[in-house]
Recover the amino acids of this structure.
């Protein structure tokens, strides 16, 4: 059986520290004196200091910064590289909270589990070796390639009701299926938790989703979340926790709840969570965590693991599970949602070719035992009629635990018997790691039970329309190969020439004989002891990995100590004035650049290559101000500035840095010498990321002043000195000197908190952490 229940380093067991959390909750109640939502209970009980955090009464949702102490961190292989490189600059011998690394994103799907895994291990060897060496050095649990997908492994081993965890992946909220608050963050935020630095979160707003009735037949948990995404849209959850409650929650499997929590990310939600249920208790027992379940039972006896009666939500949504239909969300956006009964008409109306080119199930979103046993029941029906799938049909198990258990129980055989190809336990086609030979450059439709469907995400083809649906629907439709096929009503012709119709799928929430661990060599040493003498495995000639040198502080200790020294940026040069939308994709492109995630110098070659120069209208064009120098790409000119020791700033339009928490978009400009970003407005997370890397983010008081600064102008700050010396109300302006010597002063807002000013003072938040280590 699966044996992973082992105590993390600073808890007596993997059980969350309920006694401490209950005390914190009691204090919270005495201060706020009102009914609390479940998310409020979990978040406030993790405050670094409850009295301080709740001073002044109710934290204003959407405004107040909370300082929290997460219990655990999980990182996937692509983002862990930069997170660990940053952590390594902090000079800590080990991580302050239990941490795990999961090798899942870098494994391409091509021909099946075994061959794909071998290929990926060879092509990513240096990255995996580096991650393993860092895990050994710092005492981190290392789940190597083939062990499974981060979120499934976290659910099987680490998530627990009332836990607060951070993960360096946007679908970290999957762990909410067991009643945790699990939040996706960038590496620098993970480093906060790993170094015992309080982690800042803006008090979230709350969306309450009430589930009534019961699911039946063809409808599954996936359809619940497809419905909610359709209602709330891709922006509807921003800054909110989505908290489900009601009788309908009790009737779902824990893994079904995880599917719902997983796709909260598609609405931009901070996270999703659920009250503690009997199904969660069974899942904890089945994954060998009985003591966690027992402790959760006790914590719930004090009311910790569900919302109080009368708790207030900023929005209230009701979903009647009894009337829900299977749904398709897409193409190209997860919020374009169509019920099954109308999908055939939509296909006609849009003029889409009535053909499915590939069917894919599994991934971190939908590869539970429950999902697999339901789809196997469909496969068995088809096999009995002599049918094979009419499209290619791929299955991505979320973990070795699932893979081994479905193999033992014959479910894998059921799927393979009808043409299914089981891929390795990794992200594969969900993250574009799919060497697909068919349909290159052609319009085609695929059905998946994944969570994202942006253009080109799965196979790199912008013409591939990805429709998200439940595993049951994807599987059943694979036998017809037609988009317009309704498996709940339409008939197929069996090998005997007779028509038949599928019966609704059935399956077991949990394996009746328990899980089997499969290949136990994947299981990491639990709570490994750090081995500090371990060298981080980074070759000096590597093009993919590079040690991170701490950023220099902007001013020396002597300058800070001298009250007569004005701590101002002087003679910065404006590199470019950027026009229009500039997302984190435009600042730090993904795609082929992904392989440089651990090599800041090489990745910086893509800095701002998608940005539009407002002065010449061109994309990725900057003009060097020096006589005799010429136009170049933005990274080229930025590198020239860096080479001659010329610090720089840029002027940007509205919502600069929108898109994602991609921290490379702030690390790269800082690395190339940016000191100030002056924007009409910023995306909130990106502004925070810039500050963490020591870049001063300023907002124009008058947005029309945007055009007063041109590339090549000399720019200095005024008022920065007062801010750095402790006056949070200091007004900062920038003084712009034109080539003819004329000067213009432009007022700005800084809006920085005390902690954020400290980060800039140290040159980066990490430098601040490092200084604490020394102290
Ligand atoms: Fe991996 Fe896709 Fe999930 S990339 S973590 S399987 S969303």
């Amino acid at each position: 059986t699966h044996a992973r229940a082992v105590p993390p380093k600073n808890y007596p067991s993997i059980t969350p520290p309920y006694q401490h959390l209950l005390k914190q909750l009691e204090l919270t109640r005495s201060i706020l004196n009102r009914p609390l939502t479940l998310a409020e209970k979990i978040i406030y009980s993790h405050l670094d200091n409850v009295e301080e955090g709740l001073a002044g009464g109710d934290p204003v949702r959407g405004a107040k910064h909370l300082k929290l102490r997460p219990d655990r961190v999980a990182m996937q292989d692509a983002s862990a590289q930069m997170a660990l490189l940053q952590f390594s600059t902090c000079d800590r011998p080990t991580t302050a909270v239990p941490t795990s690394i999961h090798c899942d994103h870098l494994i391409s799907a091509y021909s099946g589990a075994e061959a794909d895994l071998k290929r990926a291990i060879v092509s990513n060897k240096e990255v995996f070796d580096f991650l393993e060496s860092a895990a050994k050095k710092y005492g981190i649990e290392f789940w190597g390639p083939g062990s499974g997908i981060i979120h499934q492994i976290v659910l099987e081993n680490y998530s627990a009701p009332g836990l607060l965890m951070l993960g360096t992946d946007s679908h970290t909220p999957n762990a909410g299926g067991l009643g945790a608050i699990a939040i996706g963050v960038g590496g620098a935020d993970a480093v906060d938790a790993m170094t015992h630095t309080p982690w800042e979160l803006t008090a979230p707003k709350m969306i309450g989703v009430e589930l009534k009735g019961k699911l039946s037949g063809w409808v599954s948990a996936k359809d619940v979340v497809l419905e909610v995404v359709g209602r709330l849209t891709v922006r509807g959850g921003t800054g909110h926790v989505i908290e489900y409650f009601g009788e309908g929650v009790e009737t779902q499997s824990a893994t079904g709840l995880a599917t719902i929590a997983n796709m909260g990310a598609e609405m931009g939600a901070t996270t999703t969570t659920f009250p503690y249920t009997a199904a969660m208790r069974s899942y904890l027992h089945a994954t060998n965590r009985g003591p966690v379940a027992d402790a959760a039972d006790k914590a719930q006896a004090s009311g910790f693991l569900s919302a109080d009666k009368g708790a207030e939500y900023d929005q209230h949504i009701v979903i009647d599970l009894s009337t829900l239909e299977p749904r398709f969300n897409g193409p190209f956006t997860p919020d374009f949602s169509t019920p099954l009964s109308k999908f055939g008409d939509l296909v006609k109306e849009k003029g889409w070719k009535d053909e499915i080119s590939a069917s894919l199930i599994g991934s971190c979103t939908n590869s539970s035992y429950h999902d697999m046993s339901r789809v196997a029941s469909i496969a068995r029906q088809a096999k009995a009629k002599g049918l094979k799938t009419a499209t290619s049909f791929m299955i991505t198990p979320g973990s070795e635990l699932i893979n081994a258990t479905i193999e033992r129980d014959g479910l894998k055989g059921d799927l393979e018997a009808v043409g299914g190809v089981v891929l390795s336990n990794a992200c594969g086609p969900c993250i574009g790691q799919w060497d697909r030979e068919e349909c290159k450059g052609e319009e085609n439709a695929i059905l998946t039970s994944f969570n994202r469907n942006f253009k080109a995400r799965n196979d790199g083809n912008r013409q591939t329309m990805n429709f998200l649906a439940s595993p049951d629907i994807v599987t059943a439709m694979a036998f017809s190969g037609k988009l317009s096929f309704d498996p709940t009503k339409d008939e197929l012709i069996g090998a005997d020439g007779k028509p038949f119709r599928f019966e609704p799928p059935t399956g077991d929430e949990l394996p009746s004989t328990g899980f089997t661990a499969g290949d136990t060599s994947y299981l990491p040493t639990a709570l490994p002891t750090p081995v500090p003498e371990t060298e981080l495995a980074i070759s000096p000639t590597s093009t993919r990995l590079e040690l991170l040198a701490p950023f220099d502080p902007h001013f020396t200790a002597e300058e800070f100590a001298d009250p007569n020294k004005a701590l101002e940026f002087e003679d910065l040069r404006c590199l470019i004035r950027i026009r229009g939308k500039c997302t984190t994709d435009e600042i730090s492109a993904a795609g082929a650049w992904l392989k440089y995630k651990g090599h800041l110098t090489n990745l910086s070659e893509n800095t701002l290559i998608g940005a539009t120069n407002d002065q010449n209208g061109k994309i990725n064009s900057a003009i060097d101000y020096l006589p005799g120098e010429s136009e170049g790409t933005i990274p080229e000119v930025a590198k020239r500035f860096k080479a001659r020791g010329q610090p720089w700033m840029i002027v940007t339009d509205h919502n600069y840095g929108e898109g994602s928490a991609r921290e490379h978009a702030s690390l790269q400009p800082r690395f190339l010498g940016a000191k100030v970003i002056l924007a009409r407005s910023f995306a909130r997370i990106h502004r925070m990321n810039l500050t963490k890397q020591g870049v001063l983010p300023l907002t124009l008081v008058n947005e029309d002043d945007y055009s007063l600064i041109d590339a090549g102008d000399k720019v200095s700050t005024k008022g920065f000195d007062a801010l750095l010396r402790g006056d949070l109300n200091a007004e900062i302006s920038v003084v712009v000197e034109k080539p003819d010597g004329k000067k213009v002063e432009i007022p700005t807002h800084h809006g920085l908190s005390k902690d954020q000013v400290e980060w800039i003072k140290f040159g980066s938040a990490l430098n601040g952490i490092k200084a604490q280590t020394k102290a």
Observations:
- The domain at 557-774 is CATH 3.20.19.10 (Aconitase; domain 4).
- The longest strand covers residues 205-212.
